[in-house]
Design goal:
The complex is a heterodimer of chains A (110) and B (179).
Chain A lengths: L9 H24 L3 H12 L3 H29 L2 H21 L7
Helix pairs in contact in A: 2-3
Chain B lengths: L6 H32 L9 H7 L28 H16 L3 H12 L3 H22 L3 H4 L2 H24 L8
Helix pairs in contact in B: 4-5
Classes of the chains: A mainly alpha (110), B mainly alpha (179).
Chain lengths: 110, 179
Amino acid sequence: MIQDNDSRTPSFWLGKMAGRAALVSFGSILLAEMGDKTQLATLLLSARSQNAGVIFLGAAAALISTSLIGVWAGAWVARLIPPRWIKTLAGVGFVLMGLALLWGSLPIAS
Amino acid sequence: MASPRSWQGQMALGLGLIVLSSALCFGFLAVGQRYLYGNGSAVDFQPAGESLALSPAPHTELPAAPPLTESPSSDSNLPEGSPLQLWLVTFLTVFVAEMGDKTQLATLLMSAQSQSPWAIFFGSAGALVTASLLSVVLGEGLGQVVPPGWLQWLAGAGFLVIGGYVLWQEWWGDDLPED
């Protein structure tokens, strides 16, 4: 978005984009996950059990595994489909996901 | 972190990360099992020889204490058993519930359209761990602290903005240095 550093090297832009991508994914997924059914399940489990640390470790390992699978599947999909289609599909997917979250009752939002 | 890798390398790294996190969890369980089951009672931390030598009378009921394999929370409807079983139950519940969920789809879309999938992984995993940590720490008070509806609306607006930005950049925007 900030265009005043065009004379930098490509590695500079890669690092910049990686940091920005990490920030964007962190913020949006944290917001989307707050109050989600997984968090409610974790809350219930840890409230009824005395081993909250074990509950946290199990939930954290499961979430890391699912996001790892998601990242790997995304990188695999990106190999098969040309970049323009991927960008379009991802943009449409993000818009649909945002609409579903806003609507709150669509089956994808669950 | 953003270095290009073959898909075999990515898969090996992913499996290694899973194995590493599992090993960390199991190691914690193996070390902390006694602490978790001791439930903070002072008997567990008293050296047995000293107590026997100095004051044998108050600890004569010690062998009658419940064995370590019995869960202290017998009144809850959770599956009874070792922390390992509890960990496994939580892992499987959250894993099954989260596979194909909107969070995983968002992660998939982000890593497909981004040039640095590992940055996406670290951001997403950090956000998920933070969310579950918040829910574990805050417990039942989370509903009063943060109204979830607002956050969901905010996340929806954020996804709309991200999708619009990606579409606009691809079809109508100028060429960025990434292309």
